[in-house]
Each structure stands twice: as structure tokens, then as C-alpha cells.
Write a structure and sequence with these properties.
By secondary structure, this protein is mainly α. The protein is 43% helix and 5% strand.
Amino acid sequence: MKPQNIVNHSVGEYFKGIPLGKWMKSRGKTDLPDFFKISCAIAAIVKNMHEAGSLHGGIKPENILIEPETLDIRLIDPVGVVDVSEISRYIHDDNFRTNTLCYIAPEQTGRIKQPIDYPTDLYSLGIVFYELLNGVPPFESDDPLAVIHSHLAEIPLHLSTFNPDIPEIIGDIVAGLMLKEPEKRYQTGAGLLHDLIRCRDEYLRSGEFLSFPLGLGDYSGKIAVSSPIPTFAL
């Protein structure tokens, strides 16, 4: 496979990868060691992209390539700022509803007046992480308007509600990515990566997860420092 528009890698670079969506369908729910490898890799790519001043605008499983044996990751096909009128035009297209609409941020629906910026990518990434751990994204429906309504108004069930083997703090990180208001989410890939690495290292060292305040490493060039990500009660 020779994908075009590879983020953080040379265009045309050969990469023996498949779409993450295809990989997930073959695997089902992702175990924690694989989740950490995949999530940290994606977060690092998003961190580097945002620090370079670029917005992806279309993070979804079809735009993430994974090498099945090594779990190496590539993020492809950045779209930048999406024209929200395109959402209304394509919402009844089955492919768009299945492969794109489930992953857009509330501010990409055109229903609210919020800027599309780096937290937009982080919302979409939260949806991808939710699907990795749960097997399905949080919002699915044959009715595209119902999916849009869910993005705007529905709070997904905490991941540990579905699976008690998922540590509460991992569910909290994912929930912090999917907050409706962009200013309340993680603001940077760096802040997200900081928290993921801390969880990963604690898990590898002790097999346990200690609670800690989320978002303390979430510094942005636009915002001096974001508020800590709230902890979510079950």
C-alpha cells in the first residue's frame, strides 16, 4: 500500500499497513497493551502535527493505517478545516454516515457556533479510542440526524460501565477527549500523550493504575494552560 498525504512521513513512503477500521473488525475489542501502543503512537503524531500548526480535520479509523504485526501507525489524508455545508450534503450517504459521521466533532456539524481547531481533532480521536476499547463507537444509528444529535447532546456511557476490566482513569481520559464544549476538552496532543504515557508506564511497572489529575500537562500556545480534565463519576 502506498497511501498519499501521509502525516509526519514522506509522501509516497511505502508502508505495509491496513486501515485501523479493518484491523478492529478482525480483532474486536483491543487489549490494554495494544491500546497503549496504538493510542500513544496516534497521540504523538497528532502532537507533532498540531505543534507544526496543522489541523487534520478528518481523524477516523479509515484515515489511520496500522501495520498488523508491529502496530506501527500512520495518519493519512488530512483535510484541514471541513466546510460544514458538506456535512449536510452527504449525511444521507451510507458510506459517509458509517465511516465519517460517527467521528465528527460537535462543532463540525454546523449546528453550533464553535471554531474548528485542535480540540476538534482530539474529539474525533476520543471516538476512535472509545471504539478501540469497546468494539463499537459511542454513537451509531441508521438515522444520520440521530448521530448528529448524539454528538451535540448525548454523553457516552463511561467505558468501565461496559467493561470493568477497563481502568476508570482510561475511561476518564477518553471521556475528557469527547466533551461537547471544545474549551473543556484536552487542548493539545501533548497533554493527551502525557497522560497516556503516565498510565502506560504505571501499568507496565506495577500492573495497576493509580488515580492522578488529568490534563496537567495540557499546555497550548493559544491558551496558557487548560483546566484539569474533570474526573467522571460512574
